[in-house]
Amino acid sequence: MEEALRAAPRRVRRVALIDASLDGGLERIERLARQAGVRVERHPRAALDRFARGGRHQGVVAWARAAQEVGVEELLEGEPQPGLLVVLDQVTDPGNLAAALRSAAAFGVEGVVLPRHGAAGAGDTVHRRSAGAVEHLRLARAPNLARALDQIREAGIWVIGLEASAPPLWEAFDLTRRVALVLGAEGKGLRRLTREHCDVQAGIPMAGRIGSLNVAVACGVALYEVARQRRLGSVAAGR
Length: 239
Hints:
By secondary structure, this protein is an alpha/beta fold. 39% of the residues lie in helices and 20% in strands. The protein has two domains: 2-64, CATH 3.30.1330.30; 69-237, SPOUT methyltransferase, trefoil knot domain (Alpha/beta knot, 3-Layer(aba) Sandwich), CATH 3.40.1280.10.
C-alpha cells in the first residue's frame, strides 16, 4: 500500500485504517494518502475484516484501480529504451509471480512480459505479496509469446532462455548488453516454442542433489548475475 501511494497515488481511490493507535508504517500510509488527496477513513477491526473479505489486512485496506498494462510494442518503444527485460512463460502461481516481480523491481528491470492467457495476473494477491513491486514495473501482456520474443529480438535485445541443463549463465554470456531473461512455468520449464524463439539457453548450475530452482528464486539469481556483470563493467569503464 505504501509503495502504491508513493509510486502511483492517482490509482488509489480510498484508504481505510484501523480505528486505533497507528504504528509507524500505518502513520506513513495515512500521511501519504492525505498528501495525495486520497480519501482516508478510520474503522474498527471488524469492518476492516469485512472489507478485506477474509484476506490479511494488517490494519489497512485500500481500494485502487488495477496496475496499467501496456502492449509489447509500447514497452519496447518507450523511453528510456529497455536494457533489461524479464519474460515469464506461463507462471501460474501468484506467489511465484509476486516474488519474481519483486526481484525484477529490486534489480532494475524496465519491463516484464507475461502471456495474456495461461498465467497468473497482477491482481490484489500478487500486488500484496510483491510488497508493491508492481508499482515500479511496466507490465506487458502478450497475446502470442513467441511473436513477442521475436519483437524483442528485432529491437536489438538478446533473448536468453533459462534452462537447468544449459551452459552456466555467468561463464559464457555477456550480460552487460541489452538482454531479456526468459523463465518457464513451475515444474515444466520453457515450452518448446518459447525455447525456439530465444537466441540462446543458459543455466544455473546446481551443486547439490536438487536439479532445479523455483522459478522465482531462479529469476532472482539470474538478475543478480546481470547486476554483478554490469557493476563490474561500470567499475572497469571508470578506471
